[in-house]
Structures are given as C-alpha cells and as structure tokens.
Amino acid sequence: MCISATAARAFKSVLQGILLSSEGEKLNSMNLLLYMSPVAIVVLLPAALVMEPDVIDVTVSLALKHRFMWLLLLVNSTMAYAANLANFLVTKNTSALTLQVLGNAKGAVAVIISILLFRNPKHESIKPDT
Predict the structure, then answer these.
(1) How confident is the model at residue 50 (pLDDT cuts 50, 70, 90)?
(2) Cα torsion at 81, 85, 91, 97 (round to 10°)?
(3) Widest distance between CA atoms in the chain
(4) What backbone phi and psi angles, to 5 degrees, belong to 129?
(5) Neighbour tally for 58: CB within 10 Å
(6) Rounded alpha-carbon distances, angstroms, from residue 120 to 61, 105, 125
(7) For residue 18, what are the CA distances in angstroms to 36, 82, 88, 106?
(8) Sign of dihedral through CA atoms 106, 110, 116, 122?
(9) Which candidate, 92, 102, 121, places its Cα nearest to that of 18?
(10) Choice between 27 and 61, residue whose per-residue pLDDT is larger
C-alpha cells in the first residue's frame, strides 16, 4: 500500500507539472485547484461514507456538543486549500521531483519533531533479561 501510495503521489505530481508548464493548457495554480477539487470529492466522499458509515451522525453530534467545531472545520479547510495551492506553486516553479523530495523531507521532519515532543517511552518488557 505504501509503495502504491508513493507511486500515485509521484504520478499526481508529474501530471501537475505537465499541466502547469504546458503552453497549450495555460493552467495556473488556481485553475488547476478548481478543476481537481470536484474530482477529489467524487473519489473521496463515497470512500469515506463506505469506510465510516456513521460519519454524518458523529459529525452532527460533535457539532451540537462543541460550539466551535464549525469554525475549526473552516480553519482546517482553509489550511488544506493553502497547502494544496503551495504544492501547485512549488510544482510550477520547480519540478515534480522537487515536490516529491520536499514531501519526503516533511515526513522525516514530522517524525523527528514528534519524537522530540512526545518522547519515546522505555518499555520494560523490551529490555533483555539479565
């Protein structure tokens, strides 16, 4: 699954690079985001509803319980939009390979920061018997 996800991400990055740099297409980052968003909804929404059938009920109950949930969802959506736009701009101004390297570096930095923040607990059961 990890290899196929990496291959799919690489394919998406290469396709973005081709669409953003092609003289015949004349797409800018905003238009590409506009055209890719409905496709993402059509693919991801049914998958989410199949894998998590009670997601709508849970969302409504959380919205009734927590006052600021809709504000948090709006902020989260805005940040996701900005991240996608930044990815498209990086692809347009550099290359798909640069975007892949940055994505892998981001994953490594996230792991290092999480280890530094949350520490790696020492497990007594892992220690060898002496």
Answers:
(1) very high
(2) -30
(3) 71
(4) -75, 140
(5) 10
(6) 35, 21, 14
(7) 14, 21, 11, 23
(8) negative
(9) 92
(10) 61
CB atoms within 10 A of CB 31: 14
Residue 123: the pLDDT is 53
User: Tokens standing for 93?
Assistant: 């101004």
Given a contact cutoff of 8 angstroms between Cβ atoms, the answer to whether 126 and 54 are in contact is no
Model pLDDT for residues 18-36, shown as the tens digit of each residue: 877 777 767 777 787 888 8
Which two structure tokens, joined as six digits, stand for 76? 């989260």
Instruction: Give the dihedral of Cα atoms 20, 34, 106, 97; nearest 10 deg.
Output: -20
- Measured in degrees and rounded to the nearest 5, phi and psi for residue 122 equal -85, 125
What gap in Å lies between CA 113 and CA 99, rounded to an integer?
21
